[in-house]
Specification:
heterodimer, A: 154 residues, alpha+beta, Alpha-Beta Plaits, five-stranded antiparallel β-sheet, B: 215 residues, Arc Repressor Mutant, subunit A, 2 domains, four-stranded antiparallel β-sheet, 10 helices, Dimeric_a/b-barrel (chain A), DUF3291 (chain A)
Amino acid sequence: MTGFHLAQVNVGRSVAPLGGPELADFVAQLPEINALADRAPGFVWRMVDDGGEDSTALRPDGDDDLLLINCSTWESVEALKDFAYHTDHLRVLSRRREWFQPLGGPHQALWWVPAGHRPSVAEAMGRIAILRERGSGPQAFTFRDPHSAPVAAT
Amino acid sequence: MTAEDDAFTALTVLSDPVRRKLYRHVAASVEEVGRDAAAEAVGISRSLAAFHLDKLVAAGLLAVSFRRLSERTGPGAGRPAKMYRPADGEHTVSLPPRSYDTVGRLLAGVVEKAGLDRELQAAAKAAGAADQDAAAGDLVEVLRSRGYLPYWDGGTLRLKNCPFHALADDFRALICGMNLALIEGMAPEGWSAEVEPCPGGCCVALRSKTNFHWL
């Protein structure tokens, strides 16, 4: 244990409103994929809206009704990678362009938080902004350029 | 030495057919391989196997770890056994020099940015379905010839190697999605492909819904 957890935020602009037929397959798979995350090794926490099931009711940008957010914390980069790319989550991920528009800039950011910390929507969006403005660094990074957890003061 | 010299040195070691057999055996094995097992698999003496295995290690093609094969520890437990596995890293030789990986990386970046995942998957699925050998029925052999190093784990066909490793590392969703479509295209009716963790390998696992005689 390092005393730090890895936080990840991912935003996506859907091709159509969430309740419509275009997103029906995505919405239908959410409970299963969230359950898969919840029991994945190294999973710590994921952001949920007032409904408590998932984060689909959250709109990180008030002016953009199609922008959805997804945020979670993990014990390690490897744990998140294993879930994201080495489980049936990959199946959903590989269909991302059926449901989400390609975004011009970064749509995902990773950063380290003190163990137990639960990032807010504003904090998470701030990390994507850091990545967009300064590129990958210890404050906000990507899988391609991972940074190790800060050394905990003992 | 240049990277090309390194690659030539590594590959020259494989010109010996016995070494080639040993390398292939270790590369295709799910677990690390000891000297006895390697010797038996290739049909040579233990000392000859040890000699060739260590040549492969010196060339950077295999890596070594030490493991006690028995439960006993402490004095009298004997020396830990030398175990072999494929080394990390890739060796490519192309004469004359070609750089398809550069092209692959550039193309992947553009395809990703343009959001053409579905177009890529459709092309991959069609390419898999067009594979004559796959259509003829021997999926295991087709996967083997394409470098996946397939092996049976009970009734599940797993793939020890990812032929697109470096690209997949940089473009996960794109390349793994393409690979899944390619394999689904190759797989005859009655097979299902699932995604399961397989460290270092390809995370696609295949099961036959009808061919229970494989079990």
